[in-house]
């Protein structure tokens, strides 16, 4: 039998609300820089896959589908490097997402950074790095709190 976990987002709501406000600000800033909501959601899904965050995978898959993302692209996201379904901007975003998430295993190499910079502006790089940091934070909140998902 598993013990009830403290939902830290509910226990300290002001901190969680601050994080949520920052995430909303990043979405607005991304739109200002020309990054699509679906690109951000692909980042959120990929990071959540790497972190094995059940709650965030469920949430961001639903949001991506609502925003018009295809089920096929979401399904092949774990092997995005092999799929010719993603744009150069999306590939750059996913490269950043994986580098931020797996920072202890490997850093963004100079070669990868140069490739990313061919497709993203300074503002887009900044927004994507911050977005990957934010979803990693939300993943940890949900994983440690063991947020459940509802059958749909």
Automatic annotation (TrEMBL):
Residues 21-99 form the Carboxymuconolactone decarboxylase-like domain. Pfam families: CMD. Gene3D superfamilies: AhpD-like. It comes from the Bacteria. Signal peptide: none annotated. InterPro entries: AhpD-like, AhpD_core, CMD-like. GO terms for molecular function: peroxiredoxin activity. NCBIfam families: ahpD_dom. This is Carboxymuconolactone decarboxylase-like domain-containing protein.
């Amino acid at each position: 039998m598993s013990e009830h976990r403290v939902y830290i987002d509910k226990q300290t709501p002001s901190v969680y609300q601050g994080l949520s406000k920052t995430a909303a600000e990043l979405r607005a800033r991304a739109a200002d820089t020309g990054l699509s909501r679906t690109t951000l959601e692909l980042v959120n899904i990929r990071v959540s896959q790497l972190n094995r965050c059940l709650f965030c995978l469920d949430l961001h898959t639903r949001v991506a589908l609502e925003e018009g993302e295809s089920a096929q692209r979401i399904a092949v996201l774990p092997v995005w490097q092999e799929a010719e379904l993603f744009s150069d901007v999306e590939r750059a975003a996913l490269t950043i997402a994986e580098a931020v998430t797996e920072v202890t295993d490997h850093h963004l190499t100079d070669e990868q950074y140069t490739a990313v910079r061919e497709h993203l502006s300074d503002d887009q790089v900044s927004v994507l790095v911050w977005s990957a940091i934010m979803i990693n934070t939300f993943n940890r909140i949900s994983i440690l709190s063991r947020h459940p998902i509802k059958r749909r």
